[in-house]
Amino acid sequence: MLRRCASDRLYFQMRVLAGLAERLGGKTAFSEETGAAGRCPMTPHSHPKARNVLQALIQGVDPDTGSELPPDTVLNRPDVLRALLTGLAALDTVQARALRRAQLPASVGKSWTEEEELQLKEAYQKQHMPVPDIAVKQGRTVRAIEARLERLGLLRAEERTTSSLFMSVSTGKEGKP
């Protein structure tokens, strides 16, 4: 049985590819026999190799030997080729997302602790630290710092340099999430 990975889409595509490989007679990194020990078999380090394998299969070439695959191979079926292309696109999407996430500050998406809020108040009210500097110090985005300051009543919406995520398209006014 396969284990869920970074996204349902990638999981589905890898399941399809595992089934295809098993039908062709080989074991895959996605089968239980490999003993993934509860970890997702697709790590960011395995993406380039997986990408190369998918590209070789799409081109009708054996990924190990580089020799052309026989014309009657299941890989020449349109639905199988579509699945390979979709798997490749899903892999590229996961890689792009990982690259974007790597550029974000460490605390993105984490809940605020009382201690962090006290540090924020201290830096903003008493030390008069600029918001971008507070963001760097706390490992958060400028948008997160401004949103928290607004929530704490220390910053008005019109004083923000970033926009609110929850703007009504029709009215242009802020709404509750």
Could you characterize what this model shows?
This protein is an all-alpha fold and 177 residues long. It folds into two domains: 8-102, no CATH class; 107-177, no CATH class. It has six helices and no strands. It has helices at residues 8-23, 47-58, 78-102, 114-126, 131-138, 142-151. The protein is rod-shaped and about 75 Å long. The two termini are 38 Å apart. The model is unreliable at 1-6, 26-39 and 166-177 (pLDDT under 50).
End-to-end CA span: 38 Å
Low-confidence stretches: 1-6, 26-39, 166-177
Main sheet makeup: none
Q: Provide the structure class.
A: mainly alpha
**How much beta, percentage-wise?**
under 5%
Topology:
Blueprint: H1 8-23, H2 47-58, H3 78-102, H4 114-126, H5 131-138, H6 142-151
Helix pairs in contact: 1-3, 2-3, 5-6
What are the defining features of this structure?
177 residues; mainly alpha; 2 domains; rod-shaped; disordered N terminus; disordered C terminus
In short:
Helices cover 47% and strands 0% of the residues.
